[in-house]
Amino acid sequence: MTKILIPAECLELTGSVQQCLLLAGEQRFIVDDIELGVSPTHTVLVSKQNDTIGLVADLYTDLPPCVSQDYSFSYTLAYNSNLQLCDDFGRTENTVYLAVHDENRSLDIWHHCLTGETRALSFSSANKADNSLHFSWVITLLAIDFPLEDCLTLARAMSYVSRETWTNDYSHFPIPVIEDSRLGIKVGWGVNQDTIHFPTLSKPSLGLYPVVDSVNWIERLLNLGVKTLQLRIKNPAQDDLELQVKRAIELGRQFKAQVFINDYWQLAIEHGAYGVHLGQEDLEESNLKQLSDEGIRLGLSTHGYYELLRIVQIAPSYIALGHIFPTTTKQMPSKPQGLVRLSLYQKLIDTIPYGSEIGVPTVAIGGIDLANASDVWQCGVSSLAVVRAVTLSNEPQKVIQAFSQIMAAHSHNQEPSHVE
Questions:
Q1: Over the Cα atoms of the chain, what is R_g?
Q2: What does the H/E/C string look like for 9-24?
Q3: Domain boundaries, the chain
Q4: 83-99 per-position pLDDT tens digit
Q5: Residues annotated as binding site for Mg(2+)?
Q6: What's the number of CA atoms in the CB half-sphere (13 Å) around residue 31?
Q7: Secondary structure tally for the chain: helices H, strands E
Q8: Residue 144 and residue 24 in contact, taking contact as beta carbons nearer than 8 Å
Q9: What backbone phi and psi angles, to 5 degrees, belong to 226?
Q10: CATH classification of 193-418 is 3.20.20.70, yes or no?
Q11: Residues comprising the binding site?
Q12: Does this model's pTM top 0.90?
């Protein structure tokens, strides 16, 4: 049971939150177990199991959130700060500054609750948001388990459309700031943003995408007709790491296949790889300009709205969406996304420019097997990444054929639309 408790001084928010919950329910989020009530303090409480988040907004009070040992986090949302962005912009933990003026744009600015790093969203100052609706969406999205960065990203998009509309239009969404020295935001890979261009891919060329941990599996699956693969060796100290990477790249050329190397981008460049796959945590240490100059295709992992909109600014060759279901193949920093979120991410991505087309190729990953593959594929993704479903099978050829049949039986238009 999840409870949303709203203070008596802003009970009018209850109706707005109810409307947001209704719209979320229409998207197939589980909202039936969310109960609305009155907060015993001036703080909005979003409480689920042993996890409680406290929120206040200067829309109705100047008091800070009530601090309690029972709270996981507490935040102040500053809508009426009237701040101008300047070089000495202060850093205040647990305060989200909304619509900060910065020349011809506005910024939502906050600090990550774990790392303390500054994050910001940019959007047009011409757009006049409904602040009460924005706050209602932040409350609602926290209740249905979105992390704060996704709550702020989606709430900003939702505050510019009709109260009856769940938007999936890229033009409605804010843009995560990836470089701004005044805020101390410097991701590193954004410096050469305008000169980075990665080769595009054909959506139908992706198909089934096994992720394997040895070149032996690469060769075995290539011989079974698989055309897209990823070599993911977790141990960077493995004795034959470079030999495995080099051989995988050579096999990809031999079979005219799309072989991606996970993480080891220097080796990928050295041996002329077709493609590289990087996680969000790997971007900081990678030289994207060098990868781009070498014409290497790039796939990037994402775990939600904020990360997705952050990395589309460097136009990767494909976007991986995950993890969809619980997985034991690696330690994950985020919760499983599930099919509802996957479907919404895909609808948004289908509106994002991709070269001269519209719609970035996508790869769904995380816990996908024959039992759930059909449901995942029907979300509209371009590819299914599988790990254990193939490598733990006694008959991988039959498993590959079964996946192919599922994707063929529920075919969808895989070619991007042209930009008008």
A1: 23
A2: HHCCHHHHHHHHHHHH
A3: 2-186, 193-418
A4: 777 645 555 778 999 99
A5: 263, 282
A6: 21
A7: 12, 22
A8: yes
A9: -70, 135
A10: yes
A11: 230-234, 262-263, 282, 301, 327-330, 367
A12: yes
